[in-house]
């Protein structure tokens, strides 16, 4: 009978030491397959340990399949295929890069209000917090969103057609599954590169659809072969184009021509229109029920909050229930309840109008300092009527990389328009920079103007 | 000049009333495309309103594209394509069905501890809560998960290879994008139907792979043409089979034969092994770096918490960074920080061992009452060594539907094994029920035994 050296002072219990020792013997072939193991009683006496210890070790070996048990006979070693030895992996250094720098806008978020609402939800909604939210999202939040859109966007969606999801990227994934992979998906060019990456990662056919000064170029759309067009007519990213009513009519006509055409209206920063009323959505003027509305709270509240939603036309909602209704909601009830209260109690409206004011003051001050500067006639500003970004067209001999570096040195995060192009224009797009308001502070403006003067002065 | 009736007592501001009136005139063709609008000054005098009011209305019409502005000339109505009128949708009745009934286990969750940790996170992590989490998830949580697995599962994963996501279904979606759509995906049959639905919704080719008493039937796997096998070797759902080491070796050999084969090890309820040590993972014995480990906190903590994770082999992790690294993390920082503390402070271990004890007492009491009952020899229990469910094989003439109804009347949620079959067996599977522990309470057992006696007595 084999002898195993067991150490009662070891941190590992005796049964575990025995289990390991026998397992190693079986794996190494020292106990060949088919051999009967000593009886529990005999081994316990031999090793001077309790029978329960042997039994526990044997049961573990049985559970993992190293031995089999034959009733009224005992335990037998299994014949095992030679298991290749695991190669220990080197720990990887691939930890994430640091998250993006704290953006200025985060400081404006009414965190103490949010924290108070969260504490209230913890106190008042214990039972709800322990249950999974309904698959489409909590009714409380879907109703609050519908009320919010009624107040701020002037349309009145059916809460039953709202689907809550953990971020816009997640919802794009779901939409591809809903609308189908056989379609070609049209994307605005230039546009948000991340959107293209989601479609590409999903392996669907993608077409870059170029823009003219009114948004989607209808000719380009028609020749692209796209059946689904993903667009942001309220304030295109990054050009800032607001699609006028005439072009919207043309898009609607295109939509109505074929039964399998769809528009995905990405209304990601519509809340930040600086004057007048918000631009009506295409969803609300859709006569054929084939515009899907999408929006997110990442831009308006904080990017740490990953709550987005889409509103489906009624017939499509029925298909959603059938095909994808099984998907669990990806947003915790806790955030959903807090956000519902934040919306219903008016904090969202207050926060958005405060931020809108903040961005407008920034924009106005920037425009006025720019006009007073020596580079006023070398810079054209575009897309600054709304949203969180604007385009600067600079007359400069510098490369876009150099311009970007100089702006970064002034603490301004900017990117060349070219970086947003899927099919880069052959020429002529140099010197157009996309600047985000959310990164700017009033105090930075004089330095920014100075840098812009330097960048453009070298033109002369 | 047209006259518009504006009402200063109306809730809508004057400019908005004017904007609507002019817009309607343009849409209806009463102001034809190309017609010059009255100057701001003239219209203001005509309507006896301020010039700013007219200007604001005109600017809104301009922004939405109903008019264009010609410098030093004025505003002109646009020629518009006829916009089809929107058909108002009937509000849909399609609200979600009620979420599943509160499960007994929810009551065992240490909610007050969780709430206290949440309040602590709110106080101490304000800045972190305002920033988006890193794409793979917070380092705090990934390290806490690695430590947890070292303690409880006996392997030592690299936190840099852990990806956090909002639920297992979300991660399945991501895995398909990572491994590729060209593969056929093998699924255990019988198995969790929802997993099949996710793969089907993604439009990838799926093969049902039948099981024998050791788990995946190797013959069936080989003839299925699957390159990726999704399996739960630790405790298969719903059969409860624990795949023994011999079969694991065969699976590893299959994996090593071709470079594009993968195993997805779904370890969804491994924490609830009732005796001995946990069964080692296949991930930890993988010599070729092609086992992906997945687990979720929905089963162990509460289904309201939608946090799951996967651990990728190092080479696959590098591919993830390249192909899918752009995806934002779908879980709020708030839940991630709270869970990290819950794990690190030992609450998770305590909760899991309390629940394990709870389920074991339930199981033991059920088995002992069953043995003492008159139907002991008509019922075989299987898969009850671990996990949150067991199989009952009943000798009964009743249909599965009838058996299920009678069990439901005793307050026990059970489902026929057949409902989990992708390719239903021609015969012989009748009378096998899957019963979940998390729905049972001790007090229900006498009634359950009584119902089982009735169900099986009718066999004689």
Describe the structure.
The structure is a homodimer of 460-residue chains. With 460 residues, chain A is α/β, with parallel strands linked by helices. Chain A has 3 domains: 14-77, Arc Repressor Mutant, subunit A; 111-345, Type I PLP-dependent aspartate aminotransferase-like (Major domain) (Aspartate Aminotransferase, domain 2); 352-455, Aspartate Aminotransferase, domain 1 (Alpha-Beta Complex). Helices cover 40% and strands 14% of the residues of chain A. Chain A has 15 helices and 14 strands. Chain A has an 8-stranded mixed beta sheet, sandwiched between helices. Chain A has a 4-stranded antiparallel beta sheet with strand order 11-12-14-13, with helices on one face. In chain A, strands 1-2 form a two-stranded antiparallel sheet. The longest helix of chain A has 26 residues, at 347-372. The model of chain A is unreliable at 86-104 (pLDDT under 50). Chains A and B meet through helix 3, helix 4, helix 5, helix 7 and helix 8 of A and helix 3, helix 4, helix 5, helix 7 and helix 8 of B.
Helix and strand topology:
The structure is a homodimer of 460-residue chains.
Chain A: H1 14-27, H2 40-47, H3 51-63, E1 67-70, E2 74-77, H4 111-124, H5 126-130, H6 139-153, E3 162-165, H7 168-179, E4 184-189, H8 193-201, E5 205-212, E6 215-216, H9 218-224, E7 228-231, H10 245-257, E8 262-266, E9 291-296, E10 308-311, H11 314-324, H12 333-344, H13 347-372, E11 379-382, E12 389-394, H14 400-409, E13 414-416, E14 432-436, H15 445-457
Parallel strand pairs in A: 4-5, 4-7, 7-8, 8-9
Antiparallel strand pairs in A: 1-2, 3-10, 5-6, 9-10, 11-12, 12-14, 13-14
Helix pairs in contact in A: 1-3, 2-3, 4-12, 6-12, 7-8
């Amino acid at each position: 009978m084999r002898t195993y050296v067991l150490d009662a002072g070891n941190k590992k219990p005796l049964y575990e030491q025995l289990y390991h020792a026998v397992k190693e013997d079986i794996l190494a072939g020292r106990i060949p397959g088919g051999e009967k193991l000593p009886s529990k009683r005999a081994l316990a006496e031999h090793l001077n340990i309790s029978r329960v210890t042997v039994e526990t070790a044997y049961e573990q070996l049985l559970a993992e399949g190293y031995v089999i048990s034959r009733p009224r006979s005992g335990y037998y070693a299994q014949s095992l295929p030679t298991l290749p030895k695991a190669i220990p992996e080197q720990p990887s250094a691939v930890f994430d890069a640091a998250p993006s720098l704290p953006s200025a806008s985060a400081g404006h978020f009414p965190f103490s209000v949010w924290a108070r609402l969260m504490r209230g939800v913890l106190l008042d909604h214990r039972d709800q917090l322990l249950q999974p939210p309904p698959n489409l999202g909590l009714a409380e939040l879907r109703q609050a969103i519908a009320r919010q859109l009624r107040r701020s966007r002037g349309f009145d969606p059916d809460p039953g057609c709202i689907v809550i999801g953990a971020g816009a990227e997640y919802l794009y994934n779901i939409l591809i599954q809903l609308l189908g992979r056989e379609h070609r998906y049209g994307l605005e060019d230039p546009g948000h590169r991340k959107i293209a990456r989601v479609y590409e990662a999903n392996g669907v056919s993608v077409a870059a659809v170029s823009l003219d000064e009114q948004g989607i170029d209808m000719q380009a759309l028609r020749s692209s072969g796209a059946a689904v067009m993903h667009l942001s007519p309220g304030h295109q990213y990054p050009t800032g184009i607001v699609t006028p009513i005439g072009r919207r009519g043309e898009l609607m006509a295109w939509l109505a021509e074929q039964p399998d055409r769809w528009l995905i209206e990405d209304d990601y920063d519509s809340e930040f229109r600086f004057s007048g009323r918000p631009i009506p959505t295409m969803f609300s003027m859709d006569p054929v029920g084939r515009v899907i509305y999408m929006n997110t709270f990442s831009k308006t509240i904080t990017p740490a909050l990953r709550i987005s939603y889409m509103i489906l036309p009624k017939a499509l909602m029925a298909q959603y229930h059938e095909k994808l209704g099984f998907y669990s909601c990806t947003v915790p009830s806790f955030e959903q309840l807090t956000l519902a209260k934040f919306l219903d109690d008016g904090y969202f409206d207050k926060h958005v109008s405060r931020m809108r004011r903040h961005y407008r003051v920034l924009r106005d001050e920037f425009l006025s300092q720019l006009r007073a500067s020596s580079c006023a006639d070398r810079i054209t500003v575009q897309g600054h009527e709304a949203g969180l970004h604007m385009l600067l067209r600079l007359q400069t001999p510098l490369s876009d990389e150099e311009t970007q570096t100089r702006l970064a040195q002034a603490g301004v995060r900017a990117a060349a328009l070219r970086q947003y192009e899927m099919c880069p224009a052959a020429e002529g797009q140099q010197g157009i920079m996309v600047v985000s308001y959310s990164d700017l502070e009033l105090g930075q403006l004089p330095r920014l103007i100075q840098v812009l003067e330097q960048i453009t002065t070298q033109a002369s």
